[in-house]
Every structure is written in C-alpha cells, then in structure tokens.
Design a protein that fits this description.
The chain folds into four domains: 2-155, 3-Layer(aba) Sandwich (Alpha-D-Glucose-1,6-Bisphosphate, Chain A, domain 3), CATH 3.40.120.10; 181-293, Alpha-D-Glucose-1,6-Bisphosphate, subunit A, domain 3 (Alpha-D-Glucose-1,6-Bisphosphate, Chain A, domain 3), CATH 3.40.120; 297-419 and 437-442, Alpha-D-Glucose-1,6-Bisphosphate, Chain A, domain 3, CATH 3.40.120.10; 450-531, Alpha-D-phosphohexomutase, C-terminal domain (TATA-Binding Protein), CATH 3.30.310.50. It has 543 residues and is of the alpha/beta class. It is globular. It has helices spanning 2-13, 37-54, 86-97, 101-111, 132-145, 158-169, 179-194, 215-223, 249-256, 297-315, 331-340, 352-359, 380-391, 397-412, 420-434, 438-442, 478-486, 514-531, and strands at 29-32, 58-62, 71-77, 121-126, 149-155, 206-210, 232-236, 271-274, 281-286, 292-295, 321-326, 344-348, 364-368, 374-378, 450-455, 464-466, 471-474, 493-498, 505-510. Bound molecules: 2-acetamido-2-deoxy-1-O-phosphono-alpha-D-glucopyranose and magnesium ion. Residues 26-27, 328, 350-352, 369, 371, 499-502, 506 line the site of 2-acetamido-2-deoxy-1-O-phosphono-alpha-D-glucopyranose (GN1). It catalyses: N-acetyl-alpha-D-glucosamine 1-phosphate = N-acetyl-D-glucosamine 6-phosphate. InterPro entries: A-D-PHexomutase_a/b/a-I, A-D-PHexomutase_a/b/a-I/II/III, A-D-PHexomutase_C, A-D-PHexomutase_C_sf, A-D-PHexomutase_CS, AMG1_II, AMG1_III, PAGM. Substrate binds at residues 369-371, 497-501, 506. Belongs to the phosphohexose mutase family.
C-alpha cells in the first residue's frame, strides 16, 4: 500500500537510536529530548490509527510536564478528552521500541481491525521547551505519513488540548475548540459565580501565581483580559528569565514543602504554583511567624467537595458527592471527609487515569492526587438535573441561587483532566463566595505529619500490592512487618508500593508527630530493604 511506502520513506528521516528502550507509562513517554524524534514520529502514526479506530479526533501533547527542560515527552488524548485507553499504551510502547516498524504497525492494524480508508484527525499541541517545536513537527510528519489530517494548536497547556479534543468530538456541546472558546467559557463562568459574592473583599481579588517558567504562565497572561479584573493575577516565574521547573512550580513546592526559590512571600497572602504543563496546582501561604503552609490536592478536594455538597443540599437535589483519593491522601483529609462531611470516599491506585475512572461511577465526583492533579466529574444525568432546575421558574430563591451556582461550576471546570487554570478559577470562586481566607481554608482540618521515602531494590516488582496499593501481598512477611511497625505508633498508617515512574520502592508513613512519622517511615524502609532485595547502603534514620 502507498501509505506504508510513505511510512517507510519518512521513518528513515526519524531513525531510532540503537539500544534505546522507552516505556509508555502513567505519564506517557518521557526521556531526554535528544532521544525522542523517532518516538514522536511513531506516536503520530499511532494517533492516526487510534483516530481511524475510534472514528474521532485524537490529541497528541508534546510535553514532559514537571521534568527538567532537557527532557521531553508526549501524552496521547482519547476522544472524550481523557487519557488514552490502557490497552493502547501497550501499542505505544511496542511501536516506540520496534526495530521493524512496519511489522508492528501492521500487527496493530490487524489486531484492532482498523479500516485504513477511514479518515483520521489529530490535534497536536506543545509546551515551551526548546525541543518541543522540532518534536511536534515529527508528530505531524507521522500523521501525514498515514494520510491523516492534523491541526497544530502550537503552544497550549496539556489540559487545553484535552479540552479541544472533547469540544471537537462532541460537536461544540462542550464548548468551542479554540483557545478563545476555552477562555470565554471558563472566565464567564467565573464571573457569574463571583458576581453576587457579597462577602468578597478587594484583597480576595488578588492572587500570586508561579507559572513554573512554563506554558501555564503564557496562558494565564493570555486569559487575563477575559477576567475583567474580577481576578487580578501577579505572575511570577513567567519564563522571561528563569528556567522551566527549576526551583519553582507545583512539583518543587509540594516535594520541598517550601516556596519557589527567590519568591518573596507576604504573610497571609494567597499563592499558587502550576507545574510545567499546567495540569497540576498547589496553594500556599506563610503565617505571621513566617511558617510555610501548603494546601495540596487533599485540601483542594475537601474545599471543592464541601462546596458542592452544600449547594446540592440547598438545591434539594438528591445527587451523591464522592471524593476519589489515592493511598497518599493525608489520613486527616479522609477522616474529615468521611466523618464530618459525610461524603463517599474511594481510594484508587496511583495515577490519574485510575482516579478518573473511579470518579466516573458517581453523580458528582471530585478526584485529586495529593500532588495537586485533579478535577470534578458530573455524570450526564447530574448535569441534566442541575440544568433543568436552574431553568425551573417555580422554585424558591435559595434553590435558584444554588442551581445557578452549580450550573456555573460545571462550566468553570475542565472535566477532561486536571487543569491548573480551571482549578484555580474554581478555588478562587469558592473562596470568594464563602468569603473565606486561605488561613480559614487551611484550618478546616490539620494534616497528620507524614514522610515519604524511596528505597532502591534490585527488582521493584518483588513488591506486589492489593487494596488500591494499601497492602503488600509479596514478598512474604512484608505486610505483617508493616502492620506490626504501624501498631507501635499513634494515629499511624504506612504502606509500600513500587513506583510506576522511577526505579524505586516508595514508602509512605504518617503518625501523630513528625518524629513518629519519620521513625515509622525509616523502620518500614529498613523492612523493604531487608525483605524485598535492597541494594546499596541500608536506609539510615532521619534524625
Ligand atoms: C507518590 C506520587 O506523587 N506519585 C506520582 C508519580 O507516580 P509513581 O508511580 O509514584 O512514581 O508520578 C505519577 C505521574 O506523574 C503521579 O500521578 C503520581 O502521583
Ligand atoms: Mg503535569
């Protein structure tokens, strides 16, 4: 076939480096940008096949999120704007590593019974890395080699591209597949949400945003005029001087538990940080003693779910709110949600796709990883009930107000994937409506002291887990040891699991004091080292 000849011809221009193996994992493909040209071309081919297979537009985002500037990577987006189906992740890995490209390609076509005369459409976007332009061109080459149509959105955040894909495939029902359409929808909803917020002070209109020197900064700037001064953003780390993700951004702030380097914080003011592709957000402030306070994904999920539950009650709508977390969620947040807020809490495996999937089972579900990646999902039935109520002329003022707020909430949220910009607008709207300061938000519950450690082992697959990764089923004796260590401390919890993105085992521990959390994390690390084939030096105590 002529298509295959074209693939063969073009692939010579995108040669695979010898000996390189890539893996399409939790966060797509990621490695040093020098080694990625062939993979990008091949993912262009795969996106085209996926488009033919689903008869819908598929997205390809060129980014390595919070990784250093020298790295790059790619994320594939399925028709409803969600992450690509796991079955195809396997094809992505196979194709990226194939020595005989055509054989693997034909194999996928046969297995999935793909009609090669079906039209294909692929949306492509990229972040601000210096390698992104060259690599997104390689994706476009892959699409055209298989006669697919492509639309290059150029510089966009990852969630913006997810949004475009969903808009395109729902024929405008979700919004218009343009940046202008995205800003208009979100900002109009934000303005509607906050317009009657009588408790809102002028101070509450000010927010400082750390753009991680990445794409999020550019896009916040682009959005500003749509906000009509209802939110006034001071942008830091906007990419004009600093390096992408270097000592700044959501990942740095969450992991280091401190503000971006060089950031002068005024006590009591609200700050937030995006990551390198703007699909994660965390908030923070310092108190009058200069103490740093982080409001991570758990605090965000609590704020959002409480707000939604209250509104649904006021609206008299019998829709259940659930929160989906991972095992890394702070025990205090889970306890508060279950016992005080009385919302359903589910624990999913680490990785956004697992949370998203679990959230789809509820009427209204807020899902967040502690690191700040998350969003809210409304079922179709829930959206319909809310819209019907908002348009009902025979309801009282309280119900009307709640229904309209819920309707605008649906519009401010990007339901396809965690979105720092959309999450920021929603959080700002909630604080405005409730007249709540960042300190009051933080005081809703106190995080339990916790510690995360990494242990190097010969083969991390030695650890196998169950119960959403909260219990180890192998190696023998591992879980019993963890249980008996946990029993030594108060309010303690600990679990171990192999990382999906690094060649290590992660250990998590929490307890009533930082000393206890640290000691427990250390003891569990030692147990992993001894029972699961630790390599290098034995883990040392933290103090
Ligand atoms: C404890 C932790 O933060 N794990 C991260 C990390 O996964 P690991 O499988 O733990 O390496 O990277 C994932 C992808 O970015 C992210 O979804 C997840 O939250
Ligand atoms: Mg990211």
């Amino acid at each position: 076939m002529a298509q295959f000849q074209e693939v063969e011809k073009q692939s010579i221009m995108h040669p695979k480096p010898p000996g390189l193996t890539l893996h399409y994992g939790t966060a797509g493909l990621r490695t040093n940008a020098k080694h990625l040209d062939h993979a990008m071309f091949r993912m262009g081919l795969l996106a085209t096949l996926r488009s033919k297979n689903t008869k819908a537009t598929i997205g390809v985002m060129v980014t390595a999120s919070h990784n250093p500037e020298e790295d790059n990577g790619l994320k594939l987006i399925d028709p409803m704007g969600e992450m690509m189906a796991p079955a195809w992740e396997h094809y992505a890995t196979q194709l990226a590593n194939a020595d005989d490209l055509l054989t693997v390609l034909k194999d996928i076509i046969e297995k999935e019974a793909i009609n090669m005369s079906q039209e294909a459409n692929v949306f492509v976007g990229k972040d601000t890395r210096s390698s992104s332009a060259r690599l997104s061109q390689a994706v476009l080459d892959g699409v055209s080699a298989l006669d697919g149509h492509s639309k290059d959105y150029g510089l966009v955040t990852t969630p913006q591209l997810h949004y475009m894909v969903r808009c395109q495939n729902t024929k405008g029902k979700y919004g218009e597949a343009t940046l202008d359409g995205y800003y208009s929808k979100l900002c109009q909803a934000f303005i509607q949400l906050t317009k009657n917020a009588s408790n809102r002070t002028d101070d509450q209109k000010l927010l400082s945003v750390d753009g991680a020197n990445g794409i999020g900064a550019l896009k916040v700037r682009e959005m500003e005029s749509h906000l009509k001064k209802e939110l006034q953003i001071s942008l830091f780390n906007d990419g004009s001087q600093g390096k992408l993700n270097y000592q700044c951004g959501a990942d740095f702030v969450k992991v280091q538990q401190k503000p971006p380097t060089g950031f002068k914080m005024n006590p009591g003011e609200r700050y937030c940080s995006f990551d390198g592709d703007a699909d994660r957000i965390v908030y923070y402030y310092t108190d009058s003693e200069g103490q740093f306070h982080l409001l991570d994904g758990d605090k965000i999920a609590t704020l959002m779910s409480t707000f939604l539950k209250e509104l649904l009650e006021q609206a008299g709508l019998n829709l259940k709110v659930a929160v989906v977390q991972t095992a890394y969620a702070n025990g205090s947040s889970t306890h508060y949600l279950e016992n005080t807020m009385k919302v359903i809490v589910r624990c999913a495996k680490t990785g956004v796709k697992h949370l998203h999937h679990a959230a789809q089972e509820f009427d209204v579900a807020v899902y967040f990883e502690s690191n700040g990646h998350g969003t809210v999902l409304f079922s179709e039935a829930a959206e319909e009930k809310i819209c019907q109520l908002a348009e009902d002329p025979n309801i009282n003022d309280e119900k009307k107000r709640a229904a309209l707020l819920l309707q605008n909430t649906i519009n401010v949220i990007n339901q396809t994937v965690g979105d720092a910009i959309s999450d920021m607008l929603f959080i700002e709207a909630i604080l405005a409506i409730k007249g709540m300061s960042v300190q009051q938000w933080d005081a809703v519950y106190a995080d339990l002291p916790n510690r995360q450690l990494k242990v190097k082992v010969a083969d991390r697959r030695a650890i196998d887990t169950t119960d959403a990764e909260r219990r180890a089923v192998s190696p023998p004796g591992m879980q019993d040891t963890v249980d008996s260590l946990v029993n030594k401390y108060k309010q303690a919890r600990s679990f171990v699991r192999p990382s999906g993105t690094e060649d290590i085992v992660r250990v998590y521990a929490e307890a009533d004091t930082q000393e206890s959390a640290d000691a427990l994390a250390h003891e569990v690390s030692l147990a992993v080292y001894r029972l699961a084939g630790g390599v290098g030096e034995e883990p040392k105590p933290l103090h």
